[in-house]
Design a protein that fits this description.
Blueprint lengths: L1 H7 L3 H10 L7 H10 L3 E2 L4 E2 L4 E2 L4 E3 L4 E2 L4 E3 L4 E3 L4 E2 L4 E3 L1 E5 L6 E6 L2 E3 L4 E2 L4 E2 L4 E2 L4 E2 L4 E2 L7 E4 L4 E5 L5
Parallel strand pairs: 1-4, 2-5, 3-6, 4-7, 5-8, 6-9, 7-12, 8-13, 9-14, 12-15, 13-16, 14-17, 16-18
Antiparallel strand pairs: 10-11, 18-19
Length: about 170
């Protein structure tokens, strides 16, 4: 039985660790940090994770000062990198996997992955969806409820579905 489970779901223990033990609201932020590092995530000191809802399998790196608010879902099959002092608002969805378009009999075909990169000092509002392969430049602000489907150039405010640049913000010195 155990071998069958391992064959069907090889990452079961890791998934349970990251998405049940570490995501519990009963686990204090400081302990969550250590538990997630034990689960294989690359986290720097001062990373704050407030009850992340779900981590998929894959590579993830959070630099110093990264903050993930409650209800964040991170599907990082293709990898996720967040630079220093960036934050994801509550309910944010980061997706790094998708599918090719198939024939009419089955529109979802072979799976694809693409890394998401979030630059320094980025602020992502509540309930934002970030799609595979997107790069959000340093100093950007992403408005609540936006869908980020294309790269965002640095120091801009982006909002909407799909997100588009609304205006510039003053760059960091």
């Amino acid at each position: 039985m155990f071998n069958l489970v391992r064959k069907l779901w090889p990452n079961l223990a890791r998934e349970f660790w990251l998405n049940t033990v570490c995501s519990s609201r009963l686990v204090p932020s400081q302990a969550r940090f250590l538990l997630l590092r034990l689960g294989g995530l690359r986290l720097r000191r001062s990373t704050v994770l407030h009850g992340v809802e779900w981590f998929g399998s894959g590579r993830v790196t959070f630099e110093r000062g990264v903050v993930l608010n409650r209800g964040v879902v991170v599907n990082h099959s293709g990898g996720l990198y967040m630079a220093e002092n960036s934050g994801l608002g509550p309910g944010t969805l980061v997706i790094t996997a998708s599918h090719e378009i198939g024939p009419p009999t089955k529109r979802w075909a072979a799976g694809t992955t693409a890394r998401v990169v979030i630059g320094k000092g980025v602020w992502v509002g509540a309930n934002v969806t970030i799609l595979p392969g997107v790069r959000i430049g340093d100093g950007c602000i992403i408005g609540a409820g936006s869908v980020v489907s294309r790269d965002c150039l640095p120091d801009g405010i982006y909002a909407g579905v799909p997100a588009r640049r609304l205006r510039d913000v003053v760059p960091a010195p």
